[in-house]
Amino acid sequence: MSIKDILVHVDGDVTTSAGLALAIAQARRFGARLTGLFARNEVHGPAVVAHRPSDTLISAAKAAKEVFDKAAAGLDTRWWQVQHGSPDELIAEVVFCSHYVDLVVMSQATHRGDHVPPTLMEHLILESGRPVLVAPQEDGVTTIGERVVVGWRSAKQSARALHDALPLIDGAKEVLVASVRPLLRKDESAPAVDIVDHLRRHGLPANGERVHTEGLGIMDSLLSRAYDLNADLLVIGGHEGKILSFRGKAGAGTRHILAHMNLPVLFSS
Asked: Which domains occur in the chain, in start order?
C-alpha cells in the first residue's frame, strides 16, 4: 500500500514542530497530501460549556496555520480544526479525523503542559485503526526507514505494525526483527513460519535475533538495541492494558516507549 494521505497534529506549540517536520518529509517522499489538524485544549471554561472556541483558541489556531502553511509550502495541503476544546470531545474528534488518512504523525508528548489531553496519543494508537508515527522531541529526525528495528511477537498488533510499516521501510539498508521469544517454533509438527523469510520476500535485508532482557525491561531492551544499531525507526504493536483497565488506556509497554523513545516509532494496534 502506498501512502497518499498524511495527517499531522499541530497545536500551535513549538513541541509539535518535530512531528510537523517528520510529516512534511514523508509527504515529500511519497508525493502525499498533508493535512494539518489543529487540536488543543480549551482553557476558558465558559467556551467549553458554550461549545464555542474562545478568542485564545481561535488565535492559537491562526498562528498554528501560519506555521503549517509556511513549513509545508509547495506541498498538496489542507487544514482541519477541532473547534471544541474539552478533553473528551477533542480526543473523540481527533480519533474520528484519523480514520480518513493513511498515516497519522504526532510529536512525542513530553512537557506539553495542558495543551492536549494526556491520553490523546494512547487513544489514537488504540482506536484510530491507522498507523501512528511518533516523532521524538530530541533530534528533529526527518529521514526514516534506512535502519529499522521491528519489535516482534506473533500477535495481531505486531503483525499489523510490521505490515503498516512496509511502505516506510521499502529500500531499507538494514532491518532487525527483535523478539524476546524464539523466532522459530520448536514444535516440528507446526508450519515452518518465519517472519524474517517473509520480509526477505519483500526484498528487505532482514535478520532476526532474540533480545535478552537481563537487567532491563522488554521495552528498554528494544530501545537499547535500536540505539546500538543507530536505527532511525522502531516498529512496534500498540497493546492495550489489562482487561480490567480503563477502556482506551494503553498498556505499560506502549506508555513506556512513548515516554522514553529517542527515535521515531511507528505504532499500530
From this structure: 5-135 (3.40.50.620), 147-268 (3.40.50.620)
Please tell me the pTM assigned to this model: 0.91
Residue 247 is predicted with a pLDDT of 43
Count of CB atoms situated within 10 Å of the CB of 205: 13
Q: Distance (Å, rounded) from C-alpha 248 to C-alpha 255?
A: 12
Contact 207, 173 (CB under 8 A): no
Asked if 22 and 105 touch (Cβ cutoff 8 Å), the reply is yes
Do the beta carbons of residue 239 and residue 157 sit within 8 Å?
yes
What does the pLDDT average to over 106-111?
A: 80
Whether 181 has a pLDDT exceeding 90, the answer reads no
Report the C-alpha gap between 30 and 105 in whole angstroms. 14
Spell out the SS3 assignment of 191-257: CCCCHHHHHHHCCCCEEEEECCCCCCCHHHHHHHHHHHCCCCEEEEECCECCCCCCCCCECHHHHHH
What would the pLDDT profile of 183-212 be if each residue is shown by its tens digit? 656 666 778 789 999 999 999 999 999 887
Tell me the C-alpha distance between 184 and 250, whole Å: 28
Q: Please, which residues have CB within 8 angstroms of residue 240's CB and are 6 or more apart in sequence? A: 126, 249, 250, 251, 269
